[in-house]
Amino acid sequence: MSKTIKKIGVMTSGGDSPGMNAAIRSVVRACVYHDIECYGIYRGYEGMIEGDFILLNARSVKGIINKGGTILKSARSKEFRTHEGRKKAHEQLTKAGIDALVVIGGDGSFTGAMIFSDEFDYHVIGIPGTIDNDIFGTTHTLGFDTACNTVVDVIDKIRDTASSHNRLFFVEVMGRDAGHIALNVGVGAGAEEILIPEEDLGLDRLLESLRRSKQSGKSSSIVIVAEGDKIGKSVFELKDYVEAHMTEYEVRVSVLGHMQRGGSPSCFDRVLASRMGVKAVESLLEGKNKYMVGLIKDQMSLTPLEKAIKGQSKIDLELLRVSDILTI
Ligand code: ATP
């Protein structure tokens, strides 16, 4: 392994997700293992511009593998979108002697990292941290598994009250552009219908499906709606529509919101974060630049950042088919 890199910076940027702390811990400890200094950069690109760095050692990251959120905090920085802002950030990194970066975040953070790398010939590796699972080059982003587990738990509870009152619930989950959470939790919690941005179910089929559900003697119905579902109606409009056309239903709405981002990471996310952190550090030490670490066929892999940003993470068609069969 090349030893030209002596100090690595690690940061979390964009929306937080469970597993970010486990990834920070892994990056720090992999650095220590390889005799590299590791600096934590607070508040993403915002802190980078201000030089808000902290030297971390193996003990600094004790007791965080099980914690949600990010100890380094996250932020969105307007200034980093300008060349001037990025120049300031580069000056701060140079002043601290930081040679390379591990950026944990989503596609926006990766875009910033790529531009920065091109402008200043600076080495960067990305770790995909977002609950939406909408990044090309990995079957799982950090936090997706935890978010699905959190949502399934909540739907199980909603189901209890729904079946006690013979109610229909529309449950809105996160996913403006991608239906990964909705599809997975819909199958995992046995929802009657799943509305996702990738597929236009249509209002007629929704009504038909709910009627069939009622006729088959079901005591409750749960419809999972991704924020950006293709029908294009909000959960509240869907409620009104169904109540207007199916008076036999008493409809309720539950919007899960930010609680989906929180909580202790699942074992899967902790292991994934641990693997990704080690891979990111070792890739930098091998001289790799502008790649994202991902999980493909259960192996750690590298995808060029550009591809990760521009590529589309497609919905699992097999799961969609399973869902269609099981929601009959
Ligand atoms: P999430 O998926 O949770 O939204 P994200 O990483 O996509 O995470 P963004 O807010 O899109 O979150 O991006 C995080 C930060 O990355 C921005 O606040 C900005 O500082 C930087 N960034 C995003 N796009 C660019 C860009 N085109 N040029 C420079 N910096 C950028």
Determine the number of helices (DSSP H or I, runs of at least 4 residues): 11
Instruction: Let me know the largest β-sheet.
Output: 7 strands, mixed
Ligand inventory: adenosine-5'-triphosphate
Our Rg estimate from Cα atoms comes to 22 Å
Strand content: 15-25%
Integer average pLDDT: 93
Global outline:
elongated
Helical content (DSSP H or I, runs of 4+): 40-55%
CATH domain class name of the largest domain: Alpha Beta
Total strand segments: 11
**Quaternary structure classification:** single chain
Q: What is the domain total for the residues?
A: 2
Calculate the terminal CA-CA distance, rounded to whole Å. Answer: 55 Å
Q: What is the CATH architecture annotation of the largest domain?
A: 3-Layer(aba) Sandwich
Structural class: alpha/beta
Give the CATH topology of the largest domain: Rossmann fold
Low-confidence stretches: none
Element string (H = helix, E = strand): EHEHEHEHEHEHEHEHEHEEHH
Task: Write out the strand line-up for the largest beta sheet, numbering strands in chain order.
Answer: 3-2-1-4-5-10-11
